[in-house]
Structures
1.
Amino acid sequence: MDRRPIGVFDSGVGGLTVLKKLKELLPNEDYIYFGDTKRVPYGDKPKDEIEMYAKQIINFMNEKNTKIIVIACNTTCASIDKSEYNEILFSVLEAGAESAAGITRNNKVGIIATTRTVESGSYAKTIKLKNKDADIFQKACPGFVPLVEKGLSESDESFKLAEEYLKNLNDEGIDTLVLGCTHYPILLNAIKNAVREDVLIVDPAIRLSYDVMNYLKENDMLNLTGGETHYFVSGDAKKFADVAKLILNEDIENISCVDIEKY
């Protein structure tokens, strides 16, 4: 047994979709969640800047004595080299790529993600490693994250933007669509409305949560006596709590603002 908490981080509220899946599967674990709300969105920032952010956040997680760290931000996963870290890191991007490679029926896989993630080619490369016959079609969706952070996921603007972003992927005949940003499951209704009914939508958080559970079991690191979550943000705590309540369907307590740049 290992009673240390699990660390989860993202650029903002999107990573809460991953935290939600983890808590459903591992309700007795303690969690430290960090949302970098002061510096969101990451998707249009340069690689070296995101690498610096990741180091700061991982240093913060180490201070909180986390046993593993879940990178619930695809843009961060696409920008850093996990081998440079000694910590046990789980990548939401790798989980999404493995899921898509395994379930596509016609080998036409669509990826929607931030500009940085798309430009990195990380999803395409990882999917190809698992399924060499896959054809990858990518679309950057820079307008999605700001809408989610403002709590506008069900707005007319979100539905209109989803139709605009997904038109070309529909035309390519994709049968699988990866939500390549953890903010995007919050826009699921708008995204479903914009794709054909037979398109399989991959939420990487599902595979990721099982990967975490299996790792903890295999290494005797499960916590059977916890269940608390502490939230930390770099920006407006009240705004974060308001949006988080919509995602988690619960009131957010134990939330603190941290000067992440000092790490």
Note: The mean pLDDT is 96.
2.
Amino acid sequence: MTVSYTRTFSDIADRPVAVIGAGTLGRRIAMMFASRGGRVQLYARRSEQLAEAAEYVAGALPAMVQRRGFGEPGDLVTTTSLDDALADAWLVVESVPERLEIKLPLWEQIDASAGPEAIFATNSSSFPSRMMAASIRDKSRLCNMHFSMPPEYNAVDLMSDGHTDRGLLDSLLAILPEFGVFPFEAQRECTGFIFNRIWAAIKRESLSVVAEGVARPEDVDGMFKINWGMAAGPFELMDRVGLDVVLDIENNYAQEFPYLPAQVRDLLQEYVGAGKLGVKSGEGFYKY
């Protein structure tokens, strides 16, 4: 039987969203989907990470909804059971570390447990969803859905896995703005999609001028703030994402584009090796 993945907001308003992964982005994604009065089921293996995510959402969601001017705080349910997280979900968003050895077996589990009409989306920062489709029986239900850093930065990259149902993509293009995030569709497969590919180049050159001793992180950030009116520069933003995540992403790019400068990854590795991961560890390029 052919499954239709075409939806409207009214079709899904009373059904939960499953977010798989409760890290820096996972908890923010969960908050956005909890901003229309509905239910989000947030999964992680570690209870302490779920507790941190729940505390973040409880503290940030009411103010975000009030500032945005529409919606209402919904329910966030945290669980260490993947089956419970997937129960009755209309949408499953995976947001786990940027490593295929983690993502691939997880997607096999998701495919085995999720309902047959659930839409699948990976929040991968660089991998095309095609690379996660091997264990998914119906490849037309999977796509890339990469969030920037909501609620501050609310653009979303959408991209097909090469087989994604057209109705699914059109539905997400229409539905996601109801949650205060705004999708843009890549017209062909691209590592890094649209925004993340451009942002990767900015990060890479920013890291290069620091690695070469041309500038300090605060110099680069200061110039971005003055020239472009940014609230945070590239190094502050990398600290928010997590330097371990930034390094994983750069390693992925380097596998596909081996000509990329190694000094960028070497600099990141110095910080990660010293346990300086950014905001989440209390120190990265800056101290917190």
Note: The chain has two domains: 9-186, 194-281.
3.
Amino acid sequence: MAMNQRIESLYHRSSEPSALQPNGELLPIAFKELGTASEELLVALEQLAEQQQQLVESQNQLEAERSRYQSLFEQAPHAYIALDSDGTITSVNRAATRLFDCTHRLLLHKPITILVPIEARREFREELKRRQQVEDDQDWPVRLYSPHREPFEAALTLSVERDAWGNIISTCLCIRDISEHQRAQAQKKKHTEDLFCDRPRHTFSKGENIPLQPDALWLICKGWVKLSTLTENNGEVMMGIAGKGIPFCRTLTALPIYQVKALSQTVELITIPHMEMAHSPHLAQLIAEGVTQRLQQSELLLCVCGRRRASDRLLALLQVLKTIIGEPVATGTRLSLRLTHQELAEASCTTRVTVTRLLSEFQHQGKITIDNTNHITLPEEYS
């Protein structure tokens, strides 16, 4: 800007009659100004060249990053498909082409619904739009197909990219074929049913004590039972709640006093001799899965007992019970069993009177609701 002003000033001076001096004073001034302008132009050119080099280096770095991420995208073990804001496929990786047994060319620039059976496309579009809006990252079970393979069951997860104004730019779908897993689960269920269909069932009513057998374990087929022990002051301590598929027996505890009581109106059990498990891998696996659930539940209950305040312990206990015996309802999660205040007190290391007071406070605060059948429900914000 300064250089332009100096040149313009020099031009005006040369145009004035007084500037046409015989001694030629204007010419040296002009040369000096032009020399200064030339130097400034050289400096500007050097700065532009440096900036150009920086831009080239940045472009090369971006290209290297893009290439690296593209390579990761291509080599990912799961199938990935990227969509634009209209649901059109913009890129697919190798795993996706293998999953659908087709080339990139057959998938690119096509609507994602071409991979969905015709009768389910409308429902798929609506669910896709809903999940994009709420950014639901939970598994989405969908039946997919391609012209080159039979329809199969898949699990989809979404990740959504938005611009600064919150508009959807692109959506990436991770697609996993779960048909083999479902077949394995169905086969496992059939084996389990075959294993237990001919065994006699033993029925117990609510409140009945269930005797433990020295050479066999009980496996729950229906209902819920409470596992507990007694302290030296004859106080009962709840050790857990067990439901369908959970085993219990004398050899699974180190407690000298261990008792089991039916919590449901009807509890159905079968007995499995210890010796039989050694000769049946499927049975041993089934029992191991049940024992694992018991172990995980015990850890959750231990965390409850570690809290200092009684209100924190009781609220944490309700959260644990939600994971064990909760069932979804319109207003939240409802505990399917009605535990007495004394049983809640035993599990939360407090007194029955304290539990009664705290439940009333929780209800007043909106942390729980209690219906006319005395079932506790945890609202959505506390579920």
Note: The two ends are 67 Å apart (CA to CA).
4.
Amino acid sequence: MASRYWVVSLPVQNSASTLWNNLQDQISKHSFDTPLYRFNIPYLRVGTLDSLLALSDDLLKSNTFIDGVSHKIRRQIEELERVSGLETNALTVDGVPVDSYLTRFVWDEAKYPTMSPLREIVDGIHTQVAKIEDDLKVRVAEYNNVRGQLNAINRKQSGSLAVRDLSNLVKPEDIITSEHLVTLLAVVPKYSQKDWLSSYETLTTYVVPRSSKKLYEDNEYALYTVTLFGRVADNFRTSARERGFQVRDFEYSPEAQESRKQELEKLVQDQDMLRSSLLQWCYASYGEVFSSWMHFCAVRVFAESILRYGLPPSFLACVLSPSVKGEKKVRSILEGLCDSANRQVTYWKTEDEGGAMAGLGGDTDAHPYVSFTINIA
């Protein structure tokens, strides 16, 4: 599937069918590997010249906006598919692959009546796409909020022993709590474990001998228990800190641990549900935006062709996808088919070469026909 297309319109001198046949003939002879399609645009309501000129000023800006929303949704789809471990699905508009929708474009008269003013059609498309973008922001924010909460919990459960949540490392039998005795949890540097084992009983008075047990070890630290009288716990913390051992504040609570477990499970379920919902919404919304974008492009070709070639509307619109190496040859073919009289008046500069209309002839980067590029990937 090609990802970069040119949408162009050529002035018709005799008949559109004759020009189309000539174009097909030239492409097949000199650039046979360039896909070529008719871009069928209905006869739209022209309006006044002033309204067309005013509309033309806004078309490039609106196209940039709609193109940006389209690619934003596409990137979101790619990210969600990657995180979900799904194969990349071909994006569609009502079941039709987007490249086929472009190359076989048919105007939706029910959605965009051709008798509506061009400004009304363009504004309606812009409003619809803006609403979809706003909806995307809300849905992505909701999903990212749950994902952020889940990531925060996972970081607490998988970080260093100096900062991570210890509840899933400690069992009920590891903790002794009575009227006089308490069990503390000490985080000991991995290479200071011998020092700990030889000194913890003497860091303060009333430490239960041989009460320290290693519960867990990571790349930096080891987690040890120690049991002592509660009234000397603060003295023990101070002495341990002076020796480079960190006593973590910890209170074992089966209820709190179960509550955290349930919270984690709910967040995982919420994340999966929101991810799936967001992905399905993105698939549908991408199709809506792409369809709106192609109708916008049709309006753009029509309006710019009227301004470029005059009234009554007499132009051939088509879609091409030349290779990078073949672009220069295709440009030459298109220019050769243009009316020489038109070439002497105003040249069209493509947006990727500077945007908008250039001045009078002589600009080597400009073309004597309407042309702009669509990137669908």
Note: The chain has three domains: 1-43+313-343+364-376, 44-162+254-307, 172-251.
